[in-house]
Amino acid sequence: MNKQNLIVSSAPHVVSPVNTSRIMLDVIIALVPAMAMAAYVFGIRALLLTAVCVVACVFFEYATERILKRPVTITDLSAVVTGVILSLNLPATLPLWMAVIGCFVAIVLVKQLFGGLGQNFANPAITARIALFIGFATAMTTWPLPAAQQTADAVTGATPLALFAKGLEVPSNAEMFFGTIGGSMGEVSALALLIGGVYLVFKKVIEPTIPVCFIATVAVMAILTGNDPIFHVCAGGVMLGSIFMATDYVTSPITRKGKVIFGIGCGLLTMIIRLYASYPEGVSFAILLMNIMTPHIDSLTVPALNGVPKEKKAKGGDK
Amino acid sequence: MSSVQKHLKGIHVDHCKNTSGCPVTPITLPEKVYIPMSQHIGAPCQPTVAVGDHVKVGQIIGDNTAPVCAPIHASVSGEVTAIEQKMTAQGRVDTVIVITADGKQEAAETVVPPTVTNKEEFLSAVRASGAVGLGGAGFPTHIKFNPKNPEEVDTLIVNGAECEPYITVDHQTMVAHAQDIADGMKHIMHFLNLKKGIIGIETNKPDAIAKFKELFADSPELEVNELQQQYPQGAERVLCYESTGRHLIAGKLPADVGVIISNVSTVLKIEQFLKTGMPLVTKSITVDGNVIKNPQNVEAPIGTPLTDIIEFCGGYTGEPKKIILGGPMMGRAIPNDDVCVVKGTSAILAFDEAFAQINPETACINCGRCVKACPMNLVPTAIYKAYINKDLDALNKYHAMTCMSCGCCTYVCPARKQLSFINGNLVKGFVNSQGGKK
């Protein structure tokens, strides 16, 4: 008896076990140390804010996809990642309704209206942070002090970069590295973010190219302008931005050379804004600007074919 | 510069070489064999026998005077009982000669060792052996051995990489027939005036490597190239670069960069023909997959129905839902098992429903895994998107025609896009239909 009606598909017939959900899950796992640190520094309110952001992002993703009659893709966990990263960009005391507006901007305006996962040209969390930052300037710059440093009449304070911009005394590098400082939830501990970054590199979810170029450029710029490189690397969103937001696949270049350009560009813009512009922090603007450049960077860094020198390749294109 | 790199990129796939300890066993003689007239790239053969004729093993039953063609021989002795149209393993309907075996397996009178003293006689012997590229491409070997620029060709590369998962038959062949393969290499090099012979073997076959190293000990012109374990080391362009450092750019023939590349089984068949005069009438095949009762390596006459081979291996243990001819990376899934072994069949893999599931596609997230995997240094997702947009300029810009369909990009894609299929097949069709700016 012959076997009929077998399943026919194109080769290859085996695939790697890594799919999109698995990648997003790894990113969430990598964010756990930063979330834990935020909870430790700012208390339970930090976790509440994260939970609200995650629920709101998933809800907006589901609702938009239903309204636009697209397949519902909330199981790919990308909305969860956006929610967590956005919450880490906010002050722990931000009113929850403002955070929900941020989630709306991120998921509906930046992601779904441009076509959903993979189609957005800017990082949803970064854009939402900037929208909130400009829309709710006071609430977004009222940074709670770490629970341990709060007193009866001082519960909020300036971030290290705000102190720096005003020429005031800044926290020590050790405090900055371990995270017992004021700031947004995810900005506080460079160490916790670094642990997450190492996990992502180890699991081959990200290549270290962008974070390394980004951080190195910030450090070099700091040295060239006579500032403390360790302060600038640990302060503000450099760690969070370079490890978790500049490496967003969708909005960063795909080629190795492109990633180098992207990382250096982010670092340069960050430092220019920090040192010369009127905002104390420039990571989110830097990443957003580089996001916009990404398609052009990719287009300019098409890898050469094996064994075809550059000039020959240009000729080959005209054939 | 990305072009200055020691190794080409690739991927790591589970080897699943379950049959690596199984020597090649000849199967019980099938009752009938169905031999298609087109088992190679080039002109199909015309039947040279008629219904009712009695044929013997090794007798020519199909040939064609067209330049690119290899003769086809009877694989069993018996009577030609039909010449009919039938679906073949290549997925097309073809003229098939049906021979009902008489069980005697008498060799034809023509089966005598050929006299070979010079290149012309050697090439005609290679043609007479019916040899085609047994790695799967099926290009007639005598054409490959006769390049337009013989003075520039200096190296023979023998492909023993066997980088596809599951398949172990080349490994077993190398272990069992190392001496014949080495002799075959020497003969080919002698008659084609090649200075250097390299056999490329992946390091997951240490016994084969050791055997050849021993055999090559006093032949400085022969060399074993131990290839790192990475798919697709056995792809022609990858093997060429890894063995000689010469890049085989898309559209070029191996001879253009001074090499001739041949599969180990092809070299062995040629050597056996030179020694005995018996042409290519049997094929060694790996039979494996999770619904095969006794996975093993078998030797079957060309034209043996798949069902006979699977029965020899104990039959199915469950309901097969996908049967692949060849390896899981580049092999072909067939719609039913009513097909027969051809010269290019290297493996029969049968899998159950769970394996056969086609994963739903999701959105490309631009993760770059395909870029990191592509041995040809392409940007597969950009080619894919350019094809979806039918953007010919972008396809040219991203060197779309360089894709060799190795499947690395599809394997690693977390969005389960059929990148390799689209970039390798549909893109080429589209570009050619648009006037084919290359």
Plain-language structure description:
The complex is a heterodimer of chains A (319) and B (438). Chain A contains 15 helices and two strands. By secondary structure, chain A is mainly α. Chain A has a single domain, classed as Ammonium transporter fold. Chain A has a two-stranded antiparallel sheet with strand order 1-2. The longest helix of chain A is centred in the first third of the chain and has 24 residues, at 44-67. The N and C termini of chain A lie far apart (54 Å). The model of chain A is unreliable at 311-319 (pLDDT under 50). With 438 residues, chain B is α/β, with parallel strands linked by helices. Among the domains of chain B are: 119-276, Rossmann fold (3-Layer(aba) Sandwich), CATH 3.40.50; 369-433, no CATH class. In chain B, strands 1-14-13-17-15-16 form a six-stranded mixed beta sheet. Chain B has a four-stranded antiparallel beta sheet with strand order 2-8-7-4, with no helix packed on it. In chain B, strand 10, helix 5 (206-215) and strand 11 (222-227) form a beta-alpha-beta unit. In chain B, helix 4 packs across helix 7 (264-276). The longest helix of chain B is centred in the middle third of the chain and has 15 residues, at 178-192. The radius of gyration of chain B is 22 Å and the shape is globular.
